[in-house]
């Protein structure tokens, strides 16, 4: 399936994201986030883990029934009970998907205490069972990046033959590196019989801070589905951040000619809603959605931005749903930004007046982290009254 440059976006904020300790969302919040994901053009929403609890089952069922265009997916371990429960929840969707998985690395095989042959048989049986219920089955070998190469090829082939149409290759513990990530997908597609008939997905975790780079590299290697979460929400250091992958593909289309259906102007709103409902605040310097991602304080940067926005911005804030760049005033700011801000507030000062206000402004900025509009207005009136 590498003959297309369309990359499907699979969002798992409501499943892997919600697995972050403390990120639990209420039923109404999950429905709201699912609606926003659907509206922004996410192709597949992983809405939850139906066997995990009654609440998860109900949320997945209702999200499935309400979805307008996204495929709705639920997660299931490799057993019939999980898969049946998952199907009961997702079957209400116009386009349902069952996602079933099992840990295939030596460490993970030891947990259910299955040898390689026993696990291979389990994969065959459970994927076949899922496929008998639903036309759209995704299969994942959890901890794929630490699974022996020959065994990985063997189980991927079994899952494809049993009817999986999406093969997801998870980097469950954020262990892989970009060059490996690309090669892994490329080599699987080149080696496994039937691989060209299915979509390969990449699912990266951010333990070493490489989730976005690894996901993009996997796309280079032939993956055509990226699994991600809003704000990179997820267990430990989180999952690949949806907004980073989507904006990287948009901004660097010159070297990564892949397209997604995401309406990027909806990014900021959903980022804020996910931060609020999960209780996980977005760090100030987070790429794309952090408070400072489009803010410039230093004099040189502000001066450059006032002359040409491209001097210090590789994308437009409007493209992610912001109204514009922000030029907060602080001790690093220069006269050009102060003049621009004062003019925005309705004060067009003569050069000598501006000089005086600038001296007072610097003095204040040395004492305060940020100088706000009210502070500036006070400085101007002090100047006028000669205080
Ligand atoms: O990280 C992971 O391996 C997962 C699987 C369940 C796909 O989230
Ligand atoms: Zn995961």
TrEMBL record:
Keywords: Acyltransferase, Amino-acid biosynthesis, Branched-chain amino acid biosynthesis, Cytoplasm, Leucine biosynthesis, Manganese, Metal-binding, Transferase. It comes from the Bacteria. The keyword Disulfide bond does not apply. The keyword Cytoplasm applies. It is an enzyme of class 2 (transferase). Its EC number is 2.3.3.13. Pathway: Amino-acid biosynthesis; L-leucine biosynthesis; L-leucine from 3-methyl-2-oxobutanoate: step 1/4. It catalyses: 3-methyl-2-oxobutanoate + acetyl-CoA + H2O = (2S)-2-isopropylmalate + CoA + H(+). Its cofactor is Mn(2+). GO terms for molecular function: 2-isopropylmalate synthase activity; acetyl-CoA C-acetyltransferase activity; manganese ion binding. Residues 7-268 form the Pyruvate carboxyltransferase domain. One of its GO terms (cellular component) is cytosol. Mn(2+) binds at residues 16, 203, 205, 239. One of its GO terms (biological process) is L-leucine biosynthetic process. Belongs to the alpha-IPM synthase/homocitrate synthase family. LeuA type 1 subfamily. Homodimer. Catalyzes the condensation of the acetyl group of acetyl-CoA with 3-methyl-2-oxobutanoate (2-ketoisovalerate) to form 3-carboxy-3-hydroxy-4-methylpentanoate (2-isopropylmalate). This is 2-isopropylmalate synthase. The gene is leuA. The chain holds residues 1 to 387 of 519 of the full protein.
